[in-house]
Amino acid sequence: MFFYSINGKEKKKIVLLPHNNPDGDALGSSLALLFYLRKLKHDVDLISPTEYSESFRWLPGSKDIIIFSEKTQSLIKKKIIDSDYIFFIDFNNLSRIEILKKLLSFSKAKKILIDHHPYPFYFDFMFSDTTVAATSILVFRFISKMNNLDKIDKKIATCLYVGLMTDTGNFRFPSVTSETHFIAGKLLENGINVENIYNHLHEKYNENRLKILSKALKKLKVIKKYRTVYTSINAYDLVDLYPYKKGDTEGIISYGLGIKNIVFSVFFFEEKEQYPIRISFRSRGNFDVNLFSRKHFGGGGHKNAAGGVLEKSLSETIEYFLKIIPNYHKHLIFSI
Questions:
Q1: Domain 2-202 belongs to what topology?
Q2: pTM, full prediction
């Protein structure tokens, strides 16, 4: 019934929602759906609860994204209330769009989930598969299930390919399967420029980004006993780096995992002198940072990549982390 309604001739009002601080998979999946559903003649809006990284501003359709703010709040409220369907893309817990939760309570729209994270909440329609490498794969399946793969053009293919690249670490994570490469191959048939995509995502470091990285690396702490690395950036570190842009801290956490014998890397980020502190977790092997984050930092994500927050100061957050990490000694030592 749902597919018939979306694929039918009746025009629907649809809202697409990625999570806070949307990454390449969230934006790629959402923008691909935006183009696709507009091809089906629906009235579609893509609303981001927060700003997103400068490194994604080049994506096709990015100028159509409505970013939540005081100026756009009334417009967004109307669009959410008037919508027939609301898609929740690349997240499955409303805590990831906290600022929009109240507005969503006014909506009677059908809620559709397209996501690959574990432990989803209930939605009216769910396209959830925790085994796939990226939500972009599920969007491809969604289009395929509607027998509309012929509607994938260069713009849609580019957006989906960005999702694949970013959530698979350039096709190197354990979650990558033959299906991942099959879909990538199908997207390539639409004439996308892989070199251009890679350059946009990886080779444009602004001066501030390098300075922030330098400050983070100077603070890097290695706990050999627990095969763990952590570092941080505080509000003071950013004082002389304005205008600070979303995405300037991306990639910092990966440096820790590049150290021999390290299986757990943590990055603490205090954007302003206020709570909460944002935390990123990455791991190698069997250490499950998704469960770790859910238990201690109210977050979640994937087995080897997750995020969380804590309503404490930066020093208190790090102190709390150092207090609980000994409890995972055996898990970390035998992770690989």
A1: inorganic pyrophosphatase (n-terminal core) (3.90.1640)
A2: 0.85
